[in-house]
Structures are given as C-alpha cells and as structure tokens.
Amino acid sequence: MPTKWVLHWHPNPGSTVNSQILNEVSQCAEAINGVKDGRWKATLTLLKPNLREDQSQPGEYPRELLGISLPEQPNKYYFILRGPRIVTEADSSIQVIMEKLQSYKSRIALYFEGYQYQLGDFQLRVGKVVSSHSENLRGIVLEVEYLPISSMEKASQVLGEFVDIWQEAVLKRSLPGSFMHNEPNLSEYGLGDNYTPQHTAVQYAYVMAQLFASQSTQAVRN
Amino acid sequence: MECVVQGIIETQHVEALEILLQGLCGVHRERLRVHELCLKSGPNLVHAVPFVGPVASEVRLLCDLEHSEPTWTVKHIGGAMRGAGADQISVLVRSMIESKASKNVLRLFYGLGYKLENELLRVGFAFHFQRGAQITVTVSSINKMLKLHATDEAVPVTPGIQLVEVTAPATPENYSEVVAAVSSFCEYLAPLLHLSKPGISTGVVPTAAAAAASLMSDGGGTTL
Fold it and tell me: Is B150 an 8 Å CB contact of chain A?
C-alpha cells in the first residue's frame, strides 16, 4: 500500500475558489511532467440521525456520520464518527444495510473528481469538490501518493519534498491561494504507521471539515 | 435475499447427520464458532415501517471466532416474502444483506446509538456446496453467555438439541429455482430431521434413531 497526503486549496483572504484556478492547478500537474492517466472520483456523504421530531435529545446521538467511497477500493466503504474518533471499513453492501436500517439518512454528498497523473514513483490526483445540492465549485483537492513505501513516517520526508516542488510550481502562477496540508491526528483513530485506505478516509473527512469551516468564515465576512 | 429452512436434531444423531451430509455434498465440513450480537437502535432513532409506524431497527453483528484473527460481518435480515405464492412453498424467502467489516464495527454501532439486545454463540460445523444453488448447511448448538461477551463460559440454551439451518442466496429473478433446489436437498435429510420455515418448529422426527443407526453402521453408504 502506498502512502498518501490529501491537500486542499486554501484561498487567500477575500478571494474564492473558481474553475480558472482548477484549470491552472491541473496545468501545474502537466508542467512538472505528470502524465494524465484517467479520471477518478471519491464521494463523501454526510448522514444525520433520523430522530423523532418530539424526542430529539442533543448529545444522545452523534450529530453526523460520514460515509466515504474511494476510487482505489471500489468494493469497500468507510464510515467515520469524528466525535469518538472511529473509522470503520466495510464491504460496499453496508450502504444498503444502512438504507434498510433508516436510522441515519443522507443529507448532503460531496464529490471529489478529476484527473490523475503519473510521475515516476508518484501519483497525483487533482480534483474539484462539488456538492449534491449544487454544481458550484466548493473547493479543490490534491492527492499526492508515493507508491513504493507504506510507512507514513518513512515516506513523510519524500512526500514533503515533493509537495515543496509542487508548491513552487503553483506559486509561479500567482494564484490567489495555496494548497494546505494539515494532517489529522491519525493515531487518535487507532491507525498506525502502516498506511491503509482508512488513513485516506480520515484525511478526506478532515478536508471536508476544513472546507466547511473556511466557507463559513467566508460567509461571515461577506 | 436468501432462501432458508430450519430444523432441530438431537445431539446424539449429529454424527450420523454429518456422515450423511459428507456423502451428499462431497466436501469437507468447516468448523463453526460464531459470536452473534443482535443490536437495536436507540428509542429516538426512527425507522418508519409502512402501516406500523416508527419501530427500532435491528442489525446483527457476527464475529467469526474460528480464525486466529476474528472477522466481523454485519447482517441485516429483512421481511419475508408474503402472499399466496409464498404460503404455498415450504421454504422461507427473505431479504438478507451481509457486509464484512473491520473489527471495530461494534464500537461504530454503539457510537451510532445502537444497544445490545441479546448475544449468543453458535458452535458446530457447516458445509458449503453447489447443488442447483449455492447451499450452506449449518449444524450448531446455540449457547448463551452468562456474563457479557464471555464466549468461553457459554452454556447451551437447549442441551441435547442442535439447530440445523439450510440457506442459499437468491435473487428476485431466480428464487423459485433456489427454493426448488433447497426443497429437493431437504428431502435427502428427511429420515433424520424435518426442515421447515423458521419459527414453525416441527420437533425431532421419529425415524431419526433408526436412520442414524443405519448411517453409523455403514458409514453413509446406505441410500436413504
């Protein structure tokens, strides 16, 4: 299993993300000799407890459950509870079970989709973030995957150096923002140094939280 | 969905049943040791059932203890097929979905507000084989835990009696063929036990002792 960092676009104060930035970022991937290698798509679904209207007691149930599907594991599905820090992997048929149970209902889905690029031992995935409610661009996401090593600790230096090169390429284009990599505390989810798809799922949950937080701040400013 | 029938057999005849199954299936048995936890959603989580209203939803978590590293499966059993057609067949056809899951799945469901309703331990053996359908026969004793999750201290719910279950996966398109395959297979077991829809207990069959004695005397060579 390779090791992966998931980064997201952080616009400069006063600016917003737009499709022109997405185009420029995609061009960056090709400018550093990335070879386009097909499309990819990940989906993050926000589910809320289906509470009786008269008896909902705050705190009795988690506010949200996150469900994630990843392109590299099409037959698997991931659930995340952020409060108690739980990430669970299951066969994708778990989605049908959750629909039958009806206790948690889908409220909104975020689609991460775009092109992937090969660069020697690295694989890049650049994608737009859109929601099921509107086609407006909600954000831009970048996956940097280092294929030969599955130890996060061992891969972190080489991933860091690669991201530095990437950031320089982006900086040359004078775009109003930059990619952020704030890794969540994966050990809190019981995840070890050996990288798994569950690490990716937690990173996506973290990126979603960052996107929602920055958009709320933006809304307050406006 | 799945087709299912159940029956019971006295433990003293289980060895004969095993010989018979071995002869019929042509495969080796697999040992079975499954910790089954039935969970129900908390009182305020809604699961609306048409014409009934909101009820608690139920899910089963199965922990296979037969491997060195226990594996977990989430299982949802839905409603049985109804109607005149369903009443006429001797096999229950019901909705069933399974999903393998990582070992913290119990923690996940507790985190979602589900509560432990009951737990049991199934110990026995299973045969998996193809005979007109992908049939699984399980023969197991059902054990209850005297202390929470204490599978090592489980005691039989009905000493001297074991549960036999025949199941086969089906689809809305092929269930009638699967029902026929399961019914046909059950006829071979008839001298030892009677299989019927779950919940319709027919008890042990009077011919079991004689059939078992015959099987034990010639190692399954007799055609029943």
Answer: no
Tokens of B175: 């269930």
Contact B211/B191 with Cβ under 8 angstroms?
A: yes
Check: CB of residue A31 under 8 Å from CB of residue A119. Answer: no
Contact A103 B98 (CB under 8 A): no
**Closest partner CB to A97 (pick from B54, B59, B111):** B59
B39 has a chain A CB within 8 A of its CB: no
Asked if the B2-218 domain carries CATH number 2.40.320.10, the reply is: yes
CATH of A3-52+61-217, one of 2.40.320, 2.40.50, 1.10.490, 1.20.120: 2.40.320
Name the helix (H) or strand (E) containing B175: helix B175-189
- Chain A CB contacts of B113 below 8 Å: 49, 60-62, 103
Interface mutation target, options B1, B47, B55, B97, chain A, most CBs of A under 10 Å:
B97
Given a cut of 50, whether residue A216 has pLDDT beyond it is yes
Q: pLDDT digits over A98-143, tens only?
A: 999 999 999 999 999 999 999 999 999 999 999 998 888 999 999 9
Domain boundaries, chain B: 2-218
For residue B224, pLDDT over 50 is answered with no
Shortest distance between the Cα of B70 and any Cα of chain A, in A, equals 15
CA nearest to A20, candidates A199, A146, A210, A176: A176
Tell me: ipTM over 0.90.
yes
Q: How far apart are CA B13 and CA B162, in angstroms?
A: 10
Single out the residue of B33, B175, B59, B50 nearest to residue A93, CA to CA: B59
Q: Per-residue pLDDT for B173 more than 70? A: yes
